[in-house]
Amino acid sequence: MNARTESPDQQLRARARRVVPGGMYGHMRAEGLPPDYPQFFDRGQGCHLWDANGRRYIDFMCSWGPIVLGHQHPGVTEAVNRQMAAGDCLNGPTERMVELAERLVGLVTHADWAMFSKNGSDATTTCVTLARAATGKRKILVAKGAYHGALPWCSPHPLGVTAEDRAHLITYRYNDISSLEAAVDEAGSDLAGIVASAFRHDYGLDQELPDAAFARRARALCDAADAALILDDVRAGFRLTLHGSWDLVGVQPDLSAWSKAIANGHALAAVTGNGRYRDAAAKLFVTGSFWCGAVPMAAALATLDALEQGDGPARMRAAGQRLRDGLAAQAAVWGLAIRQSGPPQMPTLLFDDDADCAKGYRFCQEALKRGVYLHPRHNMFLSTAHSDADIDEALQATAQAFEAMASGG
């Protein structure tokens, strides 16, 4: 295929390879997906997006989580345009920062205060640093295989990471009380904090919702050791509930990290904490040139209003359950064994006897051909823009995808 016959997506990939290392980096590399998945996109509207080739998809990745109300939500767009006309990156924050902190303190059960940054790695790192600052201790417990960001202390990839970067990390198994207790014993008197994801959403594995007994034990262990219980709500926050994901199991953390869905696609992250960590947060030096930008904070206020007024978590749960029920029925018709796990708002679909994910790749590729963007390994995301009609349209495509797999077509 020469330059004249290459698709716009392929042309953009070729141009990118000349000026971007590898052509793309990080988790958005389309090379890690089945063939024909697009790398470059043109626009989004509601729960639909269009790639650089002009093809339209029903979007079940929602920009890997940030799109919670749908692309180009009118209420968010209006708030963004209004704030942009007044200013964004100024010499200090605008009133939007105070309003947003007040809003989070009013919504999040455990929160007495809030501070802001730009992405999830910023927020989780700030939580860990605050735990150490407040306790004067060093050891941090993280679940084996959990993802908490792309900085050396927590990156899932070892390139450029030194042993010293992780000298004070100890791992445990999510939802395994005895494993957690052993890790606490290993930390001894030097335990600064326990980090837990909202639920177990490790890449390529069945998801696990938090066991209430496990969450209560984590809380008790932190209390006994004078350590911080840190909830990484970056991925799940505001999709399961507006009050903090472990509110659903009746356990409150000391610190929480937020990002993804907080501003419907605008770059923003937050840390919320209880009163015990207020003094450390006031003294800690964390900063960024763009962390006080007013536009994403205005977007966040509009996003939270829309989620609260429309009971966004319930709407997404219903849409996700409609999708899940439909997929289960279709797979049964064709005798294909699938596993669906996690909350309906953030579903994962895996095939039995599919260690190399060949079945998952084939299914997602067949769905993609029919205009539905799914992921074969990562958890997916619903938004409030996914209507019953959109789910039913997607299920028409997945029915054909299952049939193609079963018939060998």
Order of helices and strands: HEEEHHEHEEHEHEEEHHHEEHEH
- Count of domain modules: 2
Low-confidence stretches: none
Highest-level CATH class of the largest domain: Alpha Beta
Assembly context of the chains: single chain
CATH topology of the largest domain: Aspartate Aminotransferase, domain 2
Helix content: 25-40%
Largest sheet: 7 strands, mixed
Task: Return the CATH architecture of the largest domain.
Answer: 3-Layer(aba) Sandwich
Gyration radius, in Å: 22 Å
Distance between the termini: 26 Å
What share of the residues does DSSP label as strand, in percent?
A: 5-15%
**Arithmetic mean of pLDDT:** 97
Q: Count of DSSP helices?
A: 11
The strands making up the biggest β-sheet line up spatially as: 4-10-9-8-7-5-6
At the fourth level of CATH, the homologous superfamily of the largest domain is: Type I PLP-dependent aspartate aminotransferase-like (Major domain)
Q: Can you describe what's shown?
A:
The structure is a single chain. The radius of gyration is 22 Å and the shape is globular. A seven-stranded mixed sheet has the order 4-10-9-8-7-5-6, with helices on both faces. A four-stranded mixed sheet has the order 1-2-3-13. A two-stranded antiparallel sheet has the order 11-12. The protein contains eleven helices and 13 strands. The chain has 409 residues and is an alpha/beta fold. Strand 1 and strand 2 form a beta hairpin.
